[in-house]
Structure prediction request, 446 residues.
Amino acid sequence: MSAATDQGPATDQGITARRALHDALAAVPDPEIPVLTLADLGVLRSIEEIGGRVVVTITPTYSGCPAMAHMATELQAVLERAGVEGEVRTVLSPAWTTDWMSAEGRAKLQAYGIAPPPAAPADGPVPVALGHRRGAPGDSRQPPAVHCPQCHSARTEVVSEFGSTACKALYRCLDCLEPFDYFKGLH
Amino acid sequence: MTASTPTPTSTAALVTYLLRLADDNLILAQRLGGAISWMPDVEDDVAVANLCLDHLGQARNLYTYAGAVEGAGRTEDDLAMLRGEREMLNAVLVEQPNGDFAHLVVRQLFTDAYQVPLYEALVASADPELAAIAAKAAKEARYHLRLSSTWAVRLGDGTDESHRRMQAAVDGLWSFTGDLFTTDAVEAELAAAGVAPDLDALRARYDATVAEVLAEATLSPPTDPYQRIGGRTGYHTEHLGHLLPEMQSLYRAHPGAEW
Prediction:
């Protein structure tokens, strides 16, 4: 997150106010997974001061994410509550990836009962190709193991590739038998 | 104009191209929306709703950009809701009815096998906005292909009944795929300018994907080469004329309505 400060009073008071505004913007929760903030999720891309106005930039997780309008409204409300003139912009590029999710965000998800996405692959995207239709053990196309957020077992299976929101899939633990949401890795 | 410099694209060609891509996604989203609650299990109801949402989101991004390029003040809603059958430029494949689950799976498989290489190529488009839209859509299309290919194999290589239905869907939908790779002056102009990919190159990847999935699903491609094309220039099958009034009636009755 960048914080260009091209103008404004460089007083202690100004810096404190600016820091408070950043904190308030970064603390806006995701409407569908309220345990995560937009900053944790990597949706909040930047907060900049341009020509005396604060420009907050966000990027959608998925093309059709229905929560984007709500997020923009919430961020705009923070600006208004702080008495700051500004706007919220949505950009598509660079495309959001779960690699941008903070370590803190991953830990929060886990504690909330949602298996976090895998960390960024070492070299380049995981080749999904045609997926794991018949994935034999050792098949290099196999996605990384998803651990149960309850008992941490790696013995889990996909119930559905698609879940209650665009960013999640539905899994089941084969040890503790609990169903759980998995935040899909998107690289 | 010299042959050595990239051709600057005309606004009209770019708008037409964007509408072709957008219409594919909008019409497919409308079809998928109509399938919600009709799937074999609740997980697939959720899946089809997710697919619908992704395609609708891609359509919205493309319409918004098309409206901006056109510069005539048309919004995404105007482009989606106030164009008639002869103005819609989607491939006839996506307007085909949901039919049984096999038809929905095969229509999705053919669409995904086309959109994955298309979007991956468009990431390198000379048009930065189109490249940004494609970068998001490519990730989604790859995920869709996982679902459609998984179901194609499971049903094709399943019971006698599921195999029979899948083969019927492949046979029935095959002749509507020609639009996906039909080119005209619009594609040629954009390809010359580096904005759109060469469809012949994409065709090879599409053919390989479809052949691989069908083989694993123990299904056969039809031998009849007939293709019913025309969607890219607004000549549709009878089904679009029934889909559009249902989709557009609210906006046409209440222009500018938001919901």
